[in-house]
Write a structure and sequence with these properties.
This is Nuclear distribution protein RO10. 74% of the residues lie in helices and 0% in strands. The protein has 219 residues and is mainly α. The protein folds into two domains: 136 residues, no CATH class; 73 residues. α1 runs antiparallel to α5.
Length: 219
């Protein structure tokens, strides 16, 4: 019960993150592809869904080199892998770190200035993404975790009640079967026995009547 609730909360959080990514894809692409509109389902694990979101974000950056360069310029950090999957953001670059882009300064300046007019609308759209689909309040998750002992107690009570109900159902079935076998089937057997005895008596009476009629005819 508690694990199912936590799984639902996790999937809802990932679904909100996916909704943000879809909004960003809508802003950059104009339309979303069929593969990117696949909704998060309960059959997908959290790790698979997060991996899919990371892959889609990486594809988004790789398809638009300009956006990747602008992102690197805005963040101005060096990507350093801690476990070959998660980068450490906002670290000061060292002298040995490569530049965020292979373009020269004039090309970078021209690239940034060419998109200067779209910065306000992009900022507004990204702000709308964060305001329309906010991340759930961590306090709600903390309150949910605090309820786990109580939820486990309720689950144990429900299991005990289910076991008691199953035992009562079994006992009721035995009582009904016994009543049916002793009363219904027994009464049917009694009636059949009485009918058989009556038929035998009737046959004897008919034979006796036939014998008397035969003797009377001979006299």
């Amino acid at each position: 019960m508690d694990e199912q609730t936590l799984d639902t909360t996790t999937l809802q959080t990932i679904s909100l993150l996916e909704a943000r990514l879809l909004r960003i894809e809508q802003i950059l692409y104009g339309t979303t592809s069929v593969s990117s509109t696949k909704s998060t389902s309960e059959e997908d694990s959290a790790s698979e869904t997060l991996a899919d979101l990371e892959q889609r974000f990486a594809t988004l950056i790789s398809r638009f080199r300009v956006y990747a360069d602008i992102l690197k310029l805005c963040l101005f950090h060096a990507y350093k892998l801690t476990d070959r999957t998660h980068p450490t953001f906002f670290q000061s670059p060292t002298a040995t770190d490569p530049p965020p882009s292979q373009l020269d300064t004039s090309a970078l300046r021209a690239t940034v200035l060419s998109f200067a007019s779209s910065f306000p609308s992009t900022v507004s759209a990204l702000t709308a993404v964060t305001s329309d689909t906010p991340i759930p309040d961590p306090k709600l998750s903390a309150d949910l975790v605090a309820l786990l002992p109580r939820m486990k107690g309720i689950e144990a009570t429900q299991l005990a009640q289910e076991a008691e109900i199953a035992e009562l159902r079994t006992r009721s079935e035995r009582v009904v079967r016994k009543w049916y076998e002793e009363r219904v089937v027994g009464y049917g057997t009694f009636v059949a026995d009485v009918e058989g005895r009556v038929e035998r008596v009737e046959r004897k009476v008919r034979r006796a009547d036939a014998l008397r009629e035969k003797e009377g005819a001979m006299v």
